[in-house]
Amino acid sequence: MKRFAVLLAALLIIGCSAHPIHPGTANAFDSNAYDVLSITDNVIQSTKTALAANQFPASISGNVKAALNDLIRAYDGADLAYCGQPIAGGAVGTLQCAPGSYHAAAMAGTATAAQSTAITNAINQVTAATTALNTAKGGT
């Protein structure tokens, strides 16, 4: 199950360019970043659930917790770079990305190379942290 989740995440990240662009994203790059953040959030939540249910042997649970915390930090940094601090949207219960965020700039057609580079670097950190978490879980 653990290997399947990581394999699925990797396949989705690799295959995102072959899929249609998500509604509400500006382009393929924006859509791919959104995919990575969505998949990573699912990995974080499922790992938290597994830890709470004591599904990892005691011999590795400390390493899993440490790797999960590293992934959460990487995810938070990537999410902040992508969306900034979300603000309340027009519809009840919706949020919008901050006006100065990469996503908002991409939607306006004003994203800079520096913003794109920051997203690429942040996504690379998320990918590395996801790999480390998989290793801590005993994956290959």
Summarize this entry quickly.
The protein has 140 residues and is an all-alpha fold.
| Rg estimate, integer Å | 16 Å
> What are the secondary-structure elements, in order, as H or E?
HHHEEHH
Low-confidence stretches: 4-14
Number of helices: 5
Gross morphology is elongated
Determine the structural class based on helices, strands and strand pairing.
mainly alpha
Number of E-type strands? 2
Blueprint (SSEs and pairs):
Elements: H1 2-15, H2 28-52, H3 58-83, E1 87-88, E2 95-96, H4 102-108, H5 113-136
Antiparallel strand pairs: 1-2
Helix pairs in contact: 1-2, 2-3, 2-5, 3-5
How does this structure look, described?
The protein has one domain (2-136). By secondary structure, it is mainly alpha-helical. A two-stranded antiparallel sheet has the order 1-2. The chain contains five helices and two strands. The relative contact order is 0.17. It has helices at residues 2-15, 28-52, 58-83, 102-108, 113-136; strands at 87-88, 95-96.
Give short descriptive properties of this protein.
2 strands; elongated; two-stranded antiparallel ribbon; 140 residues; 3% strand; mainly alpha
